[in-house]
Every structure is written in structure tokens, then in C-alpha cells.
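> example.struct
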């Protein structure tokens, strides 16, 4: 209904000269009725819209923002160079994020030490897709099911220094790291706050020569340590072999000048997990992540990681049984 406001004569603002006081009250009543009708309709529409939104999951409330903590960790995540964004986890993240519409997502680049600190902050809601499980970490971090398997950590050296390590090698080429550390003959570079798996972690923790461990806290730690190793700042680096190979190739270091030793008593593969804040928000996220990774780890992530293996077919063959039993 259209409302037209009529103006009274200037000489009599109440309209007494053109119909009297009754006309004034009729106009006032009509304006009040019209105003009430419009307000009533607006309120009704607002109520209907609110009711409709409340029935739509996630539409009536702001979604939580899940922060993904990624570090420069080739061949899982690659931050620089011609293969930026082509790591196995780089390729996984869009697939996983698309399956988690319950959240808004943001990516944050951190080093290992900063990532650990953020995961342990109860006021933050974050996840890291590249964590090894340890009893110590489980005290403050929630872990998903196993998501991928990587060849175990070992020791990367300059081949020219082979003679230093030869006394500590078994016939099958495994290095007795505990005996090497006790010998006080080499300095070893490690990434601060990184877990290398239970066997190596225990050796490093129990060494009687802690001054021979050189900790690196920065980004692209293994790449930096390869350069330091060539300058004889130390003689060994503990890392994954695919990781060391990637950095060597990026820096123009001939692969044949490097040598890698698996460590005595370590497993051929280590299983990694997604770790999240140990909070109610983290628990909800882990339940969704577990649901989606049961599919993605077999259909996507195995092949993504296999593309970086020295022996791709061997990895794919071994991968058939990776997730047959729960792993920690």
C-alpha cells in the first residue's frame, strides 16, 4: 500500500481551516497504521530469514579458522626454487582442505621449533601434517592415524670422509651411531626440535658428547647444513636421504660426492602423522582428518610421495602393506 503524505495549509498547520481537527487525527491514524504495517512486515521477514539460516549447517555461525603449520621440508613441502609447491604434502593439502569445508583454512610457514611451540599453545588452533609420533609429543599434541611412510632417517656424509666412518659400519652398511657418537671423532648437524625416530632420538639424548651436536634452528636447515658440511664445520648430518638429495641437487652438489648410512636398529620406514592442538577444537579436527585420510593416504599420498623416491617401484610395492596394522 502506497502512503502519500499530504501537507496542510501554511496558515493552519493543524488543518483546522480545511476540515478541522478531525481531519488531522484521521491523517495521524492513517500514518501510524501504515508505519506499523511496514515494521511488522520487516520484522516478520527478518524472523523468517533467521529461521532459514539456522537450519543450514555452518551458515548461521562464523567458521573456525584452522591454521596449517608447514616448514620447508623437501620432498614433502617445497618453499623455493623451480619445484615450489610440488612436494608430496604440498599436493595433498588442497585435497584435504577441500574435504574439510567445516573450517576456514590458512597456511603458515614456520621452522620446526616455532611449529612445536605453536602446537603446544592452548590458545591456538593449529595442525602440522608432517609429524613423527613420540611419547613426549603426545603429552601436548593430538595425533592422527598414520598418514604416510618415509624411509628412515640416517647419516649423510661427504664421501671423501668415508674412512672416518668405516670402523662403525656393519657388513650391510648400517652405521652404529651410538658408537660413533661415543668415539668423539666427528661433529654432527641436527635440526633443533626435530624427532628422528625412537632409536636415533635415544642415542642423541643419551650421548656423552653433547658438544659434538650442532643444532640448526633456521628454515631449510638441511640445505644449510650441507653447505656447512662441505666447509668441514661438521662431518655428518642426520636427515632423510630424499631430503638431503633434494637440497644437494638444488645447490649443485654432485650426488656421487655424498654417501648415506641407515642407522643400526632403525626400521626401513617411519610413519608420520598429522598433529593438532590438544584442545576440544583439535579433537574435532582430528576426527575429521582421520576420516578423510583413511581414503587420501591410499588414493593420493602414497603416489605423491613415491614420485620422490630413488626406487619408486620398490616404495609402491612396500606401500601395499603400510596401513594394514596401526602404526605409531
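> example.seq
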Amino acid at each position: 500500500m502506497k502512503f502519500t503524505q499530504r501537507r496542510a495549509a501554511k496558515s493552519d498547520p493543524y488543518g483546522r481551516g480545511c476540515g478541522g481537527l478531525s481531519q488531522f487525527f484521521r491523517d495521524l491514524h492513517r500514518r501510524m497504521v501504515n508505519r506499523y504495517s511496514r515494521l511488522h512486515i520487516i520484522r516478520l521477514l527478518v524472523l523468517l530469514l533467521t529461521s532459514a539460516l539456522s537450519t543450514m549447517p555452518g551458515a548461521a555461525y562464523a567458521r573456525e579458522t584452522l591454521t596449517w603449520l608447514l616448514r620447508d621440508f623437501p620432498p614433502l613441502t617445497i618453499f623455493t626454487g623451480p619445484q615450489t609447491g610440488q612436494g608430496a604434502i604440498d599436493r595433498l593439502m588442497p585435497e584435504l582442505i577441500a574435504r574439510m569445508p567445516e573450517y576456514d583454512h590458512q597456511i603458515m610457514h614456520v621452522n620446526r621449533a616455532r611449529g612445536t611451540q605453536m602446537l603446544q599453545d592452548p590458545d591456538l588452533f593449529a595442525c602440522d601434517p608432517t609429524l613423527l609420533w613420540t611419547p613426549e609429543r603426545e603429552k601436548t599434541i593430538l595425533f592422527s592415524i598414520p598418514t604416510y611412510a618415509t624411509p628412515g632417517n640416517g647419516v649423510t656424509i661427504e664421501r671423501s670422509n668415508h674412512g672416518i666412518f668405516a670402523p662403525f659400519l656393519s657388513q650391510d652398511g648400517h652405521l652404529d651411531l651410538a658408537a660413533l657418537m661415543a668415539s668423539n671423532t666427528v661433529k654432527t648437524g641436527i635440526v633443533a626440535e626435530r624427532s628422528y625416530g625412537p632409536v636415533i632420538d635415544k642415542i642423541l639424548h643419551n650421548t656423552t658428547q653433547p658438544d659434538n651436536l650442532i643444532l640448526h634452528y633456521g628454515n631449510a636447515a638441511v640445505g644449510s647444513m650441507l653447505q656447512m658440511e662441505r666447509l668441514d664445520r661438521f662431518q655428518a648430518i642426520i636427515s632423510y636421504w630424499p631430503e638431503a638429495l633434494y637440497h644437494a641437487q638444488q645447490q649443485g652438489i654432485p650426488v656421487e660426492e655424498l654417501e648415506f648410512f641407515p642407522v643400526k636398529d632403525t626400521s626401513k620406514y617411519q610413519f608420520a602423522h598429522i598433529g593438532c592442538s590438544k584442545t576440544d577444537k583439535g579433537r574435532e579436527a582430528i576426527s575429521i582428518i582421520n576420516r578423510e585420510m583413511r581414503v587420501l593416504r591410499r588414493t593420493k599420498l602414497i603416489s605423491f610421495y613415491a614420485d620422490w623416491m630413488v626406487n619408486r617401484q620398490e616404495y609402491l610395492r612396500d606401500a601395499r602393506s603400510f596401513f594394514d596394522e596401526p602404526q605409531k
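> remarks
The CA atoms of residues 188 and 236 lie 5 Å apart.
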